[in-house]
Please model this.
Amino acid sequence: MNRSTHGSGPESEKPTALAGGTLIAGDGGAPLQDAIVLIKGNQIIEVGSKGDIEVPNQARVVDATGKYILPGLIDIHVHYNNWMGELFLAHGVTTVKDMGNDIEWISRISADIDEGKVRGPRIFYVGNALDAAPPAMEHHVGVDSPEMARRAVRLLHGRGASAIKVREKITPAILQVVSKEAHHLGIPVTGHLIRTDAQEAALAGIDGLEHATGIVQVVANRPRQPQPGENAVQTFISDFKAYSRVDSTKIDELLKLLAEHRVALIPTLADLTRLLLEHGDDFASEDAEYASNPLLAYVPEGVRKMWATSSFFKAKYCDELEQGHTGYKRHQELLVQYRKAGGRVLAGTDTFFSVPGLTLQREVIVLVEAGFSPLEAISMATRDNAEFLQRGHELGTVAPGKLADMILVGANPLKDIHNIRSVELVIKDGELLDTSYHASYSATPRPKLTRPLWLEKQMQATEVL
Model:
């Protein structure tokens, strides 16, 4: 279903042709040189070689000679905030999946973008994450019985959630109920796990493992409870340290099981593992430049300070990093091994701690550094992400009948994946976008949450009935 309602005026009825560029369609196939992509309204109507397609006389022609045409990028793991829209679009990200907001607000801003009231990427969302009580974060909701779990899934789906997310304390039994109900409604389940491991989650029906969590509990005997006093950075360093002492036999068995159950791994490498990347300092310098851009003054001061200092990534745990580096290399090998075994690896960023949109470009680059080909990494950030969202029929590749979401980059990303950063044009829903920044940019702010949340109120009302 096409969720967009804007872009239907007289100008949008005039065809647009991208002409002469090299098409990297996102489907994993060979590039098509001297391509024509014909757009009408918000849809792609023809794709082919120059000479095979007749460009209408009235068409607006975009000369793409020497450029590369790709699908709009999709970030499968973000934590959206009201100031992020322009930044995603400027870096070629036309679609995101939000992984953590109260469903009242995220459904509202998603609709505002769809209706053209706010500039931003198309937002799919999970709404409130489900966890065992008591919930650990302000937008999480506790579910402690099968009936509570079923009600929560139905209510989230009814409010537009395109997936369900479970959190660290969820049990295998409750996860199985969540998965069964979500699959009955036709949406996937994904999770950030600790208590339930990846094997248990696969058998319970989960579809995605955020940050590739739950694996070290199986292959390296990591604890199944958050460690006292351990913050997010320490947790991820500890996970990668654990990868340095994994049992290879257990890895082979687990990856086979996960692939058989079609479980996707979303590793979010480029952001949370910056302490372990050789070019983490380059990312820090780049973030600092965005922090000083006066046109981005609408970004909250605390966020710009974080970009300016990279404070979240400061290495306070240097004595642990050497073992973490070893584990990170093993983790990279595991991801490549998983894809070769038929498993799905997706491109997401956990966006918040670095510049939105820029983070997905980095994720694609880091996936190539892990051992994937540029063509594979691009497909992960386009086609594969769209298919996980169950929107492969309308997003993720450049093909007739799909929504006209595309980017034009200035140099060949298959020759050097860093060229994916040379975004020169962004098209979303057939509209050629202004990707500059505007100091006046605004969108509906996130409210301060108080309990009971909307979902909790609805669950209580249903329980009374």
Q: What stands out?
A: Residues 318-340 form the longest helix (23 residues). Confidence is low (pLDDT under 50) at residues 1-10. The two ends are 33 Å apart (CA to CA). The chain is about 35% helix and 15% strand.
